[in-house]
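Practice set, problem 2.
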Amino acid sequence: MSRWHNRYLDGHAHFCTATASDRRPVLVDRADDLLYRQWNAARELLDMRVLAYVVMPDHIHLMLWSNRGSDIRKFLQRTLSLSARAYGAAGRFWKERPRVLPICSEDICETKIDYLHANPVRRGLVATPGEWVHSSYRQLACGADDVVFACDAWDGLLR
């Protein structure tokens, strides 16, 4: 059992990570069909904002924001549980509950977003962050609108 304790704060961004059980590389193949559809439905239902993301073969990173911290938890519970069912997982699909870190400043938020965007490069999957399609990098850093999942604006949200 993990000793990590998630904290959810009202009106804050939250850096979230979820990892596939046994680090199986199954997430990217059907991300468009499953994860992004679940994220869209949940953010509308819960009045959430997805500020940034990266979907790696075996884990995801999200930067989420909501007026109510409890909605971050609900978003993650809903999307991770529905995606596990949709992936047809026999047994445990996600390694453990997601790890969630509240972000208390715009500088830290930007640092975490840079970290998640650089993830595919550090893993040797691409040479530059813009080459990885399952990431918000092209939208946020380059202004592209032809992305697989569009993030929400976050100007003025962070304290």
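Problem 2, part (b): a different protein.
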Amino acid sequence: MGYFLILRPLNCLITAASVMVGAWIGLPKYLDARLLLAMIAGFLACGFGNVVNDLFDIDIDAVSAPQRPLPTGKVKRNWVVVEAIGCALVSLILAAIIDGKALALTAFALILLLSYAGLLKKYWLANIVVALLAGFSFLLGGIVRDNIAALFPFALSVLVHMPREIIKDLIDEPGDRQRGIITCAVKLGSQKARNIAAVYLGILCLILPAPFMLRILGWRYVLLIMLAAIPLILYLIIRIVLRPAIPDLRSLSRLLKLAMAIGLIAMII
């Protein structure tokens, strides 16, 4: 069970669902072999990133997250390395079966995931990498169906994940300063980081109606985002700027996840 949990299967399932959204947005919704292969490739690529991240963070997790599979000893490090390599290889094979563009995107994502875990997470550029990786799943779905409309969920995903990563930086700021990790909050200061997060969310509100205005998505999409997603995001903007305490920041991060879920649902209903 530990070898399955270390993949963080919920995150992997969200990645697979994002691949599906990228393929379906604005087009007829059906599941064929190519899309299923892409969803499995996305699931495994995400699993690779999570496993590699745990391998590099094993000493940190032993203190801050001792319940994780590696610190508890429920899994063996050597076998976890084999698991990571297996996830990467199978995801590449599945992507290659789809086509060359899918293979190139998957390979690039795996390289970024490894670079993030081993080096980039110590610097503020890590936020950009995480945001791009989250959006790549939509692009993979777009490649499967040759669907240029996948650029919209890609852009929206980047604009959601950038402020979410900044919120996580704010939560971890004291510990990051001690460990010499240069995040956005450490580099620019707490208030500037909050303002940047609010700006990203403001831009997100402005472009959320774009798929409806360009007639890619219909009334059900625009009604859901106008009645649920945008009011929630505006609330988040106000709360972020008002300098909430760390426990409140954690609740804001969860609310941002809810906004992401609303947006995904709106794109496929």
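Answer key, part (b): The mean pLDDT is 88. The chain has 14 helices and no strands.
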